[in-house]
Amino acid sequence: MSEPWHFTTIIDLIDHWQALIAGLLGFAAAIIAVILTLRIERRKRRREMDALQKSLAVELRQLVPNALGAAVALKKLAREHDPITARMVESLARVPAPIVYPANADKIGLLGRDAMDVVIVYSLIELGRSGTASLINSREPDDISAATVEMTAGVFLHACTYALSVLPKMRTGVAEHDQKDAELIQRIQTAAAAG
Q1: Is-contact 114 173, C-beta < 8 A?
Q2: pLDDT at 195
Q3: How many C-beta atoms lie closer than 10 Å to residue 129's C-beta?
Q4: 144 in helix, strand or coil?
Q5: pLDDT digits over 61-93, tens only?
Q6: Is the dihedral of CA 33, 37, 38, 40 positive or negative?
Q7: How many domains does the chain have?
Q8: How far, in Å, CA of 148 to CA of 22, rounded?
Q9: Is residue 75 part of a domain?
Q10: What distance in Å separates the CA atoms of residue 138 and residue 134, rounded to the nearest whole number?
């Protein structure tokens, strides 16, 4: 008959249960590794989200004033000139193509509730740009109707008024840039009120 095991020292206890202790230590190490990996991934996602927001905020602060300038200039052109030529439209409606937004289209969902508003602003600006391009490439480039030019201006202005809700949410992280928002918002509201 074998006698039951009895330990007399801690070393004897560890020696007898070493496989179980090693298994528990390995399990604990795996849990710690998973927890640390998840924390690193969360920090990485937050940094990526922050960089995306700041990049889009900078780009919007470039595009929206250009779109506003195009809207105001095209409305003025539609009301004061007859005939309107494609060259006139082209010289007044220079809104650059976005770069950050298309490059990060797959990440826009990271913006959560703000994603749809950002997409709408960019879509409206692109609609205004394509409307301007169609006027420039018109079959009759020396006789573009004032109503068509005014409608194109309206699209740019609509993009700007929609941006009123987006700009305060999308911060650049640079105080000097973000402080200029009040002036831009005032300009948009004034243009929208002028109709």
Answers
A1: no
A2: 72
A3: 24
A4: strand
A5: 999 999 999 999 999 999 987 788 888 988 898
A6: positive
A7: 1
A8: 78
A9: yes
A10: 6
Domain region containing 134: 52-194
**Structure tokens that stand for 109 in this block:** 């969902």
Omega before 96 cis (within 30°)?
Answer: no
In-domain check, residue 163:
yes
Mean per-residue pLDDT for 4-20?
75
Percentage of residues of the chain with pLDDT beyond 70 = 96
Q: Is residue 23 part of a domain?
A: no
Total length of the chain = 195
User: What one-character DSSP code corresponds to residue 137?
Assistant: T
Q: Which of 155, 188, 168 is nearest to 78 (CA)?
A: 155
pTM score, whole prediction: 0.77
Q: What is the pLDDT of residue 160?
A: 96
Q: Do 181 and 62 touch, CB atoms closer than 8 A?
A: no
Buried b or exposed e, range 2-23, using 16+ CB within 10 angstroms? eeeeeeeeeeeeeeeeeeeeee
Pick from 72, 126, 133, 70: which is nearest to 99 by CA? Answer: 126
Residue whose structure tokens are 């003025």: 76
Is residue 36 assigned to a domain?
no
> Contact at 8 Å (CB) between 92 and 79?
no
Q: What's the one-letter identity of residue 46? A: R
The H or E element containing residue 152 is helix 146-166
